[in-house]
Amino acid sequence: MKTVTIDLSTMPNGAIIDRHPPRGDQGDLSINWATHEIAACAALVVEHDPRQGLIFQMFSFSRGDMSEARIVREIDGLCGNDLRLVMTFNGRGFDLPLLRLRAIANWADAPNLHRINAEVSHSGAIHRDLLDTLTSRGSAPKPRLAQVCAALNIPSKDDRDADATDYVHQDRWDRCARYCEIDVISTWLLNLHLEAHQTVDLHRVQDGWSALAKWIEADQSRLARLQRFTRLPLFGCPPDGAGALGDRPLVEVTF
User: Fold this and answer.
1) In this predicted model, which residue has the larger pLDDT, 241 or 47?
2) Which superkingdom heads the taxonomic lineage of this protein's source (predicted)?
3) Does 28 score more than 50 pLDDT?
4) What CATH number has the domain spanning 2-252?
């Protein structure tokens, strides 16, 4: 059984926006997602083998080398056989609705994406939106993934990094796809922290992150861009210098 973590980068469709410009404060992407198209997408697929442990695969797609319809079909295919869980950060409010809309717009077959949408959201659901989990299904204000990761010592995109749309305008589709790759790993590590805390098992984070680091280090020629994830942080403590009342000694962690 596999877990698939998904993230999209998008770009606005100028023709649609010209016909239907945002009004007032409606310029926010979260409101006007229907005016966007897929620029790039990444999916981290993780499977557990009883003998080999965790097996990682990274898939990334961009409009630089394939059509939007094919990107949708590729993602839909990854969400097919042997799927245990699809994970996103704000996927219920953005990524999956946009994927389905672009599937319809391109007449691209997407039976698995429609199946995921049709399920009743509950604890056993096949889609886990970590933003939903953290905000009690939107009851709390919505933080960015990078902000949540910073609180847990999880690497993420830096706000000083170029925006994905900048790479599109520069015709740097490889960079646009890499933008998504960082987010899917950050999201997977965030879920690893949540599950480990719920099961009171700190070693689950250490073992999972170590397996991820070994996978990246074993293929440095292809995965060098992900080196930020090979350095395991000090678990159980706030980021260095970030504790308002000082860092808590690791010995006080009660796991």
Assistant:
1) 47
2) Bacteria
3) yes
4) 3.30.420.10
